[in-house]
Amino acid sequence: MSTPAVHEATSKTFDVAWVREQFPSLQLKMNGQQAAFLDGPAGTQVPRQVMDAVRKYFLDANANTYGAFLTSRRSNEIIANTRAAMADLFNCTPEEVVFGQNMTTITLGLARAIGRELKPGDEILLTILDHDANYSPWKVLQEKGVVIRTVDIRASDCTLDLDDLKSKLNTKTKLVAVGYASNIVGTINPIAEITKLAHTAGAMIYVDAVHYAPHGPIDVKALDCDFLICSPYKFFGPHMGALYGKKQHLERFKPYKVRPATDSVPECWETGTQVQELIAGIHAAVEYLAELGLRCDPSAKNRREALLAAYRSTVAYERTLVAKLIAALLTIPGLQFFGITEPQRFSERCSTVSFRLPKGTPTDAATFLGERGIFIWDGNFYAINLTERLGVEQLGGVLRVGLVHYNTVQEVDRLLTALKEFCAS
């Protein structure tokens, strides 16, 4: 589909002005200029609804859970309602939703629990493309004699080498850990296909959807994955992590926990007192997406349908932005681009792009842009295996632009103008 056709198809339903009105922080100014938040992959801004939900929790429900009084019962209800909301986002049951401090902490805990059942010689398959939070927690199991194998990429377009993956799967493979989308180059991996390959080999699959969650709909039933994890602060919510796990796995594996804590799933996986005010914020973030979906498609009959409608609209809108950005970046002499560039393949990538300029370091460029109110990241973004593989780790990594649905064409234009100024300075 051509870019103009995408724009025509979405302009009648996607109202970016309304979206931006929901995010008070977008009014921030830097050196007299409107801030352009192009740093979404490290954490998005949050809508007013999320801020209000956190404040309301402290006013109306600030107590620990399972007490015999009003505010405690309200905390129980908030957590239950948020599980139901995340279940709609994942397309699972509330009993399969686990909350935690963040993706890394949850993954470390689950890896330890799964490691209890692994034997020397068992294998885990990881990838070069992943954030280190879906690499190091599993690699630690080498201490138990577990063999770690790593899937390579095709450096020409920064996609996962599926032939390499297939060649390394065998009867000793117990788990495959893979990202849904790369937080550096935006590559979207074929998770359903990888899941089938893993299951055929008798292995479980653990999907890091942290970077994918703001950019596309998740359906764990269709994927048939065993575990999938994301971070609400990457999709317009507060700083926490959320895990989907098939109920039979959550019941089978035994978490490390204190004795008085419940043995019931999913609460047994949630160590200590949860950050309940932020759980209230997660609920509000999902409701914000559902509200956006209803604005795009008033015929949606329930929250799940509304969420799918929201993603249909935002995916198409973000694609118009990234198409404009990539086309312009490729005209900058000497620019080194990492990832998929062909418009006909944009369904294989999300709206995150990384590149190196012909002059200066990534930090130099990010500083130059930041002083002009354009916020983007530089470095390796904890995907150090990938920056090493691409030969840029010792050079300061890359510049990363992460577009989400509250960004605008005007912000992309500002970025491109500033990049050309930097190259000419």
Please describe what this structure looks like.
It is a single chain. The chain is an alpha/beta fold and 425 residues long. The protein has helices spanning 3-10, 16-21, 48-60, 70-90, 103-115, 136-139, 162-168, 191-200, 220-223, 247-252, 276-296, 303-329, 362-370, 384-389, 409-424, and strands at 29-30, 33-34, 36-37, 97-100, 123-127, 147-151, 153-154, 159-160, 173-179, 204-208, 227-230, 241-245, 336-338, 352-356, 374-375, 377-379, 398-402. The strands form five sheets. A seven-stranded mixed β-sheet has the order 4-12-11-10-9-5-6, sandwiched between helices. Strands 13-14-17-16 form a four-stranded antiparallel β-sheet, with helices on one face.
SSE inventory with pairings:
Elements: H1 3-10, H2 16-21, E1 29-30, E2 33-34, E3 36-37, H3 48-60, H4 70-90, E4 97-100, H5 103-115, E5 123-127, H6 136-139, E6 147-151, E7 153-154, E8 159-160, H7 162-168, E9 173-179, H8 191-200, E10 204-208, H9 220-223, E11 227-230, E12 241-245, H10 247-252, H11 276-296, H12 303-329, E13 336-338, E14 352-356, H13 362-370, E15 374-375, E16 377-379, H14 384-389, E17 398-402, H15 409-424
Parallel strand pairs: 3-15, 5-6, 5-9, 9-10, 10-11
Antiparallel strand pairs: 1-2, 4-12, 7-8, 11-12, 13-14, 14-17, 16-17
Helix pairs in contact: 1-12, 3-11, 4-11, 11-12, 12-15
- Helix fraction, binned, reads 40-55%
**DSSP strand (E) fraction?**
5-15%
Distance between the termini: 38 Å
Q: Evaluate the radius of gyration.
A: 22 Å
What strand line-up does the widest sheet have? 4-12-11-10-9-5-6
Reported for the largest beta sheet, the result is: 7 strands, mixed
The helix-and-strand class reads alpha/beta
Mean model confidence by pLDDT: 95
Number of helices: 15
